[in-house]
Input
Amino acid sequence: MVDGCNGKPYTDVVRSFRRPPLVLNVNMKRFFAPVLQALFLTVWCQVSLGQPAQNAAPPGAPTRQNSQTTQVAPPPGMGAAGPNQAAEGLKLSEDPLKEKISTMAVVKPDNWQCLLYATYLNIWRLEVVITPLSTYHLQNCSPTGMDKLSVASATAQLRTVANFDTIIKGGAHQQIMSVNLTPLSNEYYLVSNLKFSPMGTSRVSLRALWKQTKLSGVANLTGSNYRPFPLEGKFYFIWNIGTLAHRLVSPTGDKYLMSSYTVEVAPNLTRDSLVDLATQLDLPAGWTYESYFLDKTITVRAGPSNNNTITTLFDDLHNNYVLYND
Output
């Protein structure tokens, strides 16, 4: 039989109508495959984010063979730099307000700051946006300042003023650099009786989370121990010459200087006991921990040369370190 419109056999016409469903079926599979994968990663991420780290070493754990503590005496004629030395060169003018800002930049002993990590899942970019929130320069938080603050209450309070999905408690940290010139954000959030200000932004792809955690349920910042990640912000840290510093050295030779420590995991940890921290850390193979006196000033700053980004990591006791160059 012949089609009266175009002269083609009816069998050819029938075949032409049967082909589109097959093409449509292939296209639908190609479309839904990545969508289903993304949805699976989304569900997994929502479940795993915020779970506590499982591999924290208990205080007093035996020293690993790959642990190393090095103490170096100060160079001849050089003592440890005190607060007055740290403040030298920071006074901008005789303006009392500017001098007050300079004085605030000097890190004083027993200066604790409380930390929260707010996460937001950007499904369109398949990434998790992590925002550290700190009481830095807003109020001095004690080592136990967050004990009565629950994750549920913090999440409920922050969701009313910001677009956050999950809140993770970062504990109280004591900064141990000499000078912190990081500017304070004008914005802050009130959580219970504490003021928290955003300190930067870290973007982690779902692919990277998948690769690092292997569905272990440990997907938060402090759970990804000894894994460096970029942190974008206006960070500016200085360690003065002669300062007793503590650092981690990776198998590839990268050096990470400790910027703060916490008693969240090891309650008996003090600033003086940091020289013996290697006995408590569960260091990965090839990593070393060292304590030594600086023979020069070290500066870590986020600026145009590094896309306003620093690289940071946590050890398994949740102490914080930043990447630096000698």
Observations:
- Residues 13-26, 47-101, 214-222 have pLDDT under 50 and may be disordered.
- The CA atoms of residues 234 and 304 lie 10 Å apart.
